[in-house]
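ok trying this again, last paste got cut off
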Amino acid sequence: MAEACRRSGGSAGKSWKNGGIWRIIKQLGMASIKDPDVVEQFSSKLEEIRTKLLIQAMGEMMNEATSQFCQGHKHYMKSVLDTCSKKCKEDETMFETIEAYMEDLKVKSSVMKEKYTERPEIVEEIEDKERHKELIMQKIEKLKQDQAKSRELIHLQNKANKDRLKNLNKIKEIFQERLSLEIRKIQGEKLQFIFRNINHKNPESAYTFLLRINEEGVYQIVSCDPPLAQMEHLERRLQETNNFSAFLANARKAFVALYSATKTA
């Protein structure tokens, strides 16, 4: 500022020296400088020149200050614009990130919604499978109980059959002597009963029948040779009474009657 004033003052001084004084002198003419009016006019002119010079110097100073202010303002505005541009880019990047996040969240929400919609069906299917599994387990348990009962029943029947076979073996010894009866065990848990001494002409002639005990422990006649018409009745009576000794005696009587009938014929 001082430098500007100095430059302005120097410029104004030169201008004043070069033109101001000479114009005053010309205006005053040859008037005497000792005249009070002339002196006053001269002072007035000097004051006017000084005022113009000050105004000119102040204008130059204002122009220079304005220029510097404009340059500083431009630099400041450029810095502000750069900062705003950088901030805008950062904001755009952030907005893009937010938009991508929102889109991903939307997709995940849609997937979760679909899964939530399917969830009742999956739960119902699982519950159906659990109920089906429970029913299967109940059936398996029932089958286990039935198998245990069947095994127990088979065991008891086998034991009963063994007891019966043991009794038959005892009866065998008795009837072998009294009824000329031979008992043979045949493959398939069958017994063959052979009666002899029925045909007096041929004592070794055999009258036989096959007997078995079925799964239910019931006596059954498999075959009879020669056939007896009353064998079915004898079998039924044996099943009803379980009196095996009487059955054998009646079977022998039937064979004897058959032989006698044949002999008479």
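PB: full thing came through this time. The longest helix spans residues 36-178.
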